[in-house]
Structures are given as structure tokens and as C-alpha cells.
Amino acid sequence: MRRDIDVTDTAFPYLSPTTAYILVRDDGGVSQVLPGTEIVCEVRDGKARLFAVWPGQWRSDVFTIDPDALLAELKANAEWQETRRQERMAENARMAEERRSRPKERCPRCRKDGLRVRDDGSLYIHRNTRGAECGGGSAYEMAEIRRRREAAERQRIEREQRERDAAESRARHEAEYERLDEEFRAGRLDGHAKRDGSLCRGSLTAFGASLCTATGHGVSTGELAQWEAKLAAWRDESEQRPAAG
């Protein structure tokens, strides 16, 4: 079956590898050709006619090809190929830069430093200090090293966080002690004083008993809560006490 293809028919598989092109020249020569600008120019100049065979499952149809439609398809394909080429070049440049900036590693076997790392995480083939080829630095070995390194980094971050939390807790306890010391110096809180007249950190409970020991004047969070409860009770009692008339 022979059909004419309009320029606007974009459904035709112009560049499909299964589409066969047949060029019939005015001198009677018939040949199978590949679609290209030279063939299009020859057809547009009226020196030949171009046909295409679109194979189907049960039959194959022969189409008369409009050179303008084929030329537009060739230009669009060339632009797409150029775009793909530019994208591949940009990707190759990015990967090359990433490889150059990738940190060098040490071989876990020969302990040689400054070795380049492949994309899969393994080390490039290298020689040890005796000049023999070293088989160390496989992807598994380097992954295990990175796993231990990441675990050590997590432990360091957790340790620093605990230290910050402890420092903040000490700062809060110190601020609470300073406030309680002011209450003690003002005579609003029972306890006993150290030689400088400040409040002994271990001198108070909710009942005012002395907890001072020979080991120092430490204070715990529970003791601070007891001191706060005693102070709150004293304030409530002061507010409920009738003023002297």
C-alpha cells in the first residue's frame, strides 16, 4: 500500500531503526539509503523520489516521504542529540571535579596515605612501601572504616552534647544557689553559714536539718527542690499572716 505523508504528520517513525528508506533516482537507479540532509537536498531538487517502508505485524506499507517533513525531523533530532551531548559533558565534568576533590584515604593493609578513591568507595590499585602491589582497600574494607569513623563522630557529638547539658545544669544549679543564698542572707531561709557568711549548700532540707559533711558543700537537684518547697511554704505563711495592728 502506498500513502503520501504530510509535513505535519509527526506520528510517522522517520528515524526508527526499522524504517527502511528507498531512493528512486530519475535515471532509474534504486537504492536503500539512510535519511540525511544530502538525500533530502537531492529529493528537493527533483533529482529523485524518496519512499519509506513502515513494517507492521501483518503487512508493510510504502510511503512517499515529504523532504521538508524529513528535514524538520532531522533538525529536531540533531538538536536533541546536541542537548544530550552537552548534558553528558556537564555530568562528566561534575564527576571529574568530584573525583579530584574527593578526600584521599589510607590503605588499611599497607598503611599508605594519600590514595585516591574509586566511585564504589574502594581504593585504586597501589603498591606498598616494598614496591609490591597491595590488594588492600576493597569497597567492603573502606565501607567498614567509614562506618567506624561515622560511629566515632556520632559518639563525639553525643559526648559534647552531654557536656553542654551538664554545663547548663551546673549553671542552673549555681543560679538557684545564688538566689537561695540571697534568701538566706536576708534571713528568710533557715540553714547555717560557711565562714564567709554564705549559705552552706548542704545545710538545708525541708525540715531545716543540717546535712553538711566533711567532704564539702554539694547540692543535688532533689535538695534544690526541697529548698524551693520550703521557701514557697514560707512565702505562703507570710502572705497569710495578718499584719500587726
Notes on the structure:
This protein has 245 residues and is an alpha+beta fold. The chain folds into 3 domains: 75 residues, no CATH class; 36 residues, no CATH class; 77 residues, no CATH class. The protein contains 4 helices and 7 strands; from the N terminus they run βββαββαββαα. Strands 1-5-4-2-3 form a 5-stranded mixed beta sheet, with helices on one face.
In short:
Helix content is 45%, strand content 12%. By secondary structure, it is α+β, with helices and mostly antiparallel strands. The longest helix has 47 residues, at 139-185.
Structural class: alpha+beta
- How many structurally independent domains? 3
- The fraction of residues in strands falls at 5-15%
Estimate the mean pLDDT confidence: 79
Q: Total helix count?
A: 4
Q: Order of strands across the widest beta sheet?
A: 1-5-4-2-3
Shape: elongated
Question: Features of this protein?
Answer:
45% helix; 245 residues; two-stranded antiparallel ribbon; alpha+beta; 5-stranded mixed sheet; single chain; 3 domains; elongated
Question: How is this fold's topology laid out?
Answer:
Elements: E1 2-4, E2 20-25, E3 30-33, H1 37-44, E4 48-55, E5 60-64, H2 67-101, E6 126-127, E7 133-134, H3 139-185, H4 221-240
Parallel strand pairs: 1-5
Antiparallel strand pairs: 2-3, 2-4, 4-5, 6-7
Helix pairs in contact: 1-2, 3-4
